[in-house]
Design brief:
5-stranded parallel β-sheet; 6-stranded antiparallel beta barrel; single chain; 242 residues; alpha/beta; 7 helices
Length: 242
């Protein structure tokens, strides 16, 4: 889910809300990198801001270019606006043929959120994945973990992570079923404490990857930190396209 130069409510609240609802979401701040971003994140749903300072002609040109390149990137296109304008909606829906609608946002965040959620559900934007999972970006340093089994503490690095689990490299090998009552996730300066167990492992070139499934996270502060991290990684990946 990508928003191009979105209204302030999208930037301040909506992306975080969508991540908590298990949608991959980020903002494209510069119209000039839209095609490059879509080339990297194929089959995205992308919403343009009809109230942008670009002007209708320039925005139409960008949207047409995206739609003409659909065979390369597979993106579905929609338009957002705070202005209820039937003529403009008709233009985008019938003349340009955007597939994800012309959504009139409400000043209230909750109503706007419900509108966008309905549009995403109709577009099946979440796909088959139930939980957002991010891979640790290369060049941004390792994400460290400390795991306490009750008998000893071991360290490791996180490869990817979601709200329900992670893949990691550990300093020692442990069999599936091993319980860790205290797991400390060090996520770009934010410390999250969870618990869980090893659900499986697999051999790779430089060692063994352990898959750890977390116990349900009860602390709202821990969930908030994890969601904030997922959001930061997804935005970083978009910002670093060029």
């Amino acid at each position: 889910m990508l928003f191009v130069d979105p209204p302030s409510v999208i930037q301040e609240h909506m992306v975080h809300f969508l991540v908590t609802a298990q949608y991959e979401a980020a903002i494209i701040k510069d119209h000039r990198i839209v095609q490059a971003v879509l080339g990297k994140f194929r089959n995205s749903v992308i919403y343009f801001n009809a109230d942008t300072r670009l002007g209708t002609g320039a925005l139409d040109q960008i949207i047409r270019a995206v739609m003409q390149g659909r065979d390369r990137h597979g993106a579905d296109v929609g338009v957002l606006s705070y202005n209820e304008n039937p003529e403009r909606a008709q233009h985008y829906l019938m003349e340009l043929g955007v597939s994800c609608g012309y959504i009139t946002l409400n000043i209230g965040f909750e109503k706007s959120a419900r509108i966008i959620m309905k549009a995403l559900e109709a577009a099946e934007a979440r796909g088959e994945r139930r939980f957002v999972r991010v891979t640790v970006p290369s060049g941004r340093g390792k994400l460290n973990i400390n795991l306490n089994s009750g008998a000893q503490t071991l360290s490791g690095t996180i490869l990817d992570v979601s709200e329900v689990g992670m893949a990691c490299m550990l300093s020692e090998t442990y069999p599936p079923g091993t319980i860790f009552p205290d797991i400390q996730l060090q996520l770009w300066g934010s410390l999250c404490r969870v618990s869980g167990r090893i659900a499986g492992k697999r051999d790779v070139t430089d060692g063994i990857v352990h898959v750890v499934m977390f116990d349900p996270i009860k602390e709202s502060s821990t969930r908030s930190k994890l969601y904030a991290f997922l959001k930061r990684v997804m935005q970083y990946e978009v910002d670093s396209v060029l």
